[in-house]
Amino acid sequence: MPGPVVVKAQIHAGGRGKAGGIKIASTPEEAEAFGRQILGTRLVTPQTGPGGREVRILLVEKALEIRRELYVGVVIDRRREMPVVMASTEGGVEIEEVARRSPEKILREWVDPLLGLCDYQARRICYGLGVDAGRGADLLKGLCRAFMELDCSLVEINPLVENSEGDLVASDAKLSFDDNALYRHPDVVELRDFNEEDPLEIQASRYGLSYIKLDGNVGCMVNGAGLAMATMDIIKLAGGDPANFLDVGGGASVEQVKQAFRILLSDSSVEAVLINIFGGIMRCDTVAEGVVQAARQVSVELPVVVRLEGTNVAEGRRILRTSGLQFVVADSMADAAEKVVQAARGGK
Predict the structure, then answer these.
(1) 24 within 8 A of 63, measured Cβ to Cβ
(2) How buried is residue 249: exposed, middle or buried, by Cβ count under 10 Å (0-12/13-18/19+)?
(3) pTM of the entire structure?
(4) Residue 78 CB partners (closer than 8 Å, separation 6+)
(5) Which of 69, 71, 207, 271 is the catalytic position?
(6) Catalytic: which of 69, 109, 156, 162?
(7) What integer pLDDT is reported at residue 348 of this predicted model?
(8) Is 156 a catalytic residue?
(9) How far apart, in whole angstroms, are the C-alpha atoms of residue 19 and residue 215?
(10) Is the pLDDT of residue 262 over 60?
């Protein structure tokens, strides 16, 4: 590729430029040198966490002549329950920083899902950005169509480059998709890069479990997202830190409970486990059987606190107490939180 090129690390995180993951090369030899320098390294950005992400793929593209860098994006406004187009003349940096530092520089237009982005709304954004309305309006309306038709939760172009001729070029873009709508988009599913995901999260998704890794040391297994949030809150209230969000769902099988337990124990940062189950759709005895089977198949050296309530709770507690395994059965959520936090700190 003649002329200057940009060498970009391809990881699922922003802030790559500041971390050294984006380089401008004047010659092919310099581009190769940058490629060797970046490939295989771990980039640490505000969006990767302290562990960073290993760079496995590079994108090399022709460098653009940049007169201005802009930002445009579409996201869901949950308070208004509709998409909102956001735009700013402060492109090339994290939009969160712009919102914090200069909120008046973010333009917003709310989009009726039935009508899409109207012409007058697109022109109003273009006027606010100071770009040609004819060129910019089509780009903005196309962005909104992509957001709706691909069932996205986020579409953004950052930066949207305006060159010396006034043309607008999407020099970098990010799309996030609604997992619940992926069955409509097999072409998007094929783009999934397992190298960019936490191995435990990948394992959980294979069994229909909702798992998100966190930074604490108290592993949580709960049924129902609301109860999971409440469980993490009460662990914090008791002075501990949850190591994960793990929702086995309302109708989990014994096999799913077993796999959820395995995932918890696979996390080296977990020092104690709290299993908090409300037996509404799922029966407490089913959960107890899954936990006992998993504990017998896996060498469990961590304290495990179990709180069961609801359908077949007495049978579930009996299964745990007669299993011959060292489970701590709690009477309430507060009791469970206090016991698991104490256990994580090394107490009995």
Answers:
(1) yes
(2) middle
(3) 0.70
(4) none
(5) 71
(6) 156
(7) 46
(8) yes
(9) 22
(10) yes
